[in-house]
Design goal:
mainly alpha; Growth Hormone, Chain: A
Amino acid sequence: MVEILKQGSQWILLFATSMVSFMSTIDASIVNIAVPKMSRDLKVPMNEAEWIVSVYLVMICVLLIFFGKLSDQVGRIPIFQIGTLIFVAGSLFCGLSTNLTMIIISRVIQAVGASMTMATNFGIITEIFPFQRHGIALGVNSSFVQVGNIAGPGLGGLILATFNWHYIFFVNVPIGLIAFAFGHHIFPKDTQPRKPIVVDWLGYATYSMATVAFFVAIYWGQAIGFVQIRIMGLFAIAAGLLAVFIRHERQAKDPLINLKIFKSGGFSIGIITAMLVYSVGYFNNMIMPFYLQETLKLSSMTAGLILMSIPILNIFSAPVGGMIADHIGAEKISFLALFIFLIPELIFININVSWSIVWLIVGLAFFGIANGAFQNNPMIMGNAGKEYQGVAGSIAALARNFGMSIGLSLATSLLYFGISVKAGKHITAYPTAHPHWFIFGMHFTYWFALAMIIIAISLLGGLLLKQRLSAKQVKE
């Protein structure tokens, strides 16, 4: 167990771990806005350049559970610190890359480091902070994570307005080294007894293959259509491997994931609602840059500043949400936050070029408030037993990255399907001559985002009702 820290040191370490969380999360989204320039500079087609984004998310999803399990055996702090250095090295190599092969390999290195930090940061925070301050501590970390998730297009646009795409990666290097130095000097010594390193290789192999098959089906399906027999076959393979994984884990002596953790309704619903919210967040990352720059003809600098409405409000609402969660519970504040999400989704469903830009900024601002107030991390970690904190943190990060990946794919597929319906023909690019087709596709896509928020409201509302009835029965 990690030694108890003085309060000042706790907050310094929280800031250091949160900065690494911010960098590893933002690198999943910041590259999106730079892909067209990277495609031109590296002289590769757009569909190949998109793998610069995709390979990072896929590798993180493949590795997260492995490092979560490993951290329970060798300690979370060593894994986190080594991961920080690997992420910094990967960022440096990405910035120095001059061809597609080099940057893909560098993104894999980045993903290895990012998965090591993502799998351990929540567990570290719950260890260094007393239980009564978990809400505010995880709320602060959540603000960094969520800002990293949604600030990518805005921050990327600001960087590209002044520098070339290489600096999107270079900025990670000094920040990562500073965070590592803070941790090296202030992290307490982990006195937790070391356990023999035991890895459920069969479970990990089936999980990894299922994950890869799922994402190949997602990304390939976007290019050739999801009704193709090859794509449906890959989904079937992924589902079959997942079934094998679950059956094996139930019987394994030392499983990769102790499935008993999912017996907690609060944990399971926390994971599902987190995936839904992160998926909806990625709708904005994919659609809004097109709407601002292609439809409204705004510069990348102006578009970047407008998109920063979300992270700016998120920074303030997440810690406040965490403090409220410490008093009324993470589930209740998250339930209220989901209703706030309805405001921006309804604006985005109806907005048009004739509307004042103020409406768009209001919608983005409300999205930032709701995103910060949604306390998915305290909800997930608080509903996982003390013995499950390591694996719970990695599952929470996995849910986030699955949500982002699914959101990116879903938003892209729905957008171009909506555009194609309006155009009466198959379209896979922005309809420059017919911007109203894009508006139709955007509205069509955001209807699905609204539906996903309503599903999250139903799930969390059902959980709260069940908890209330259980508490009433106990009193009686």
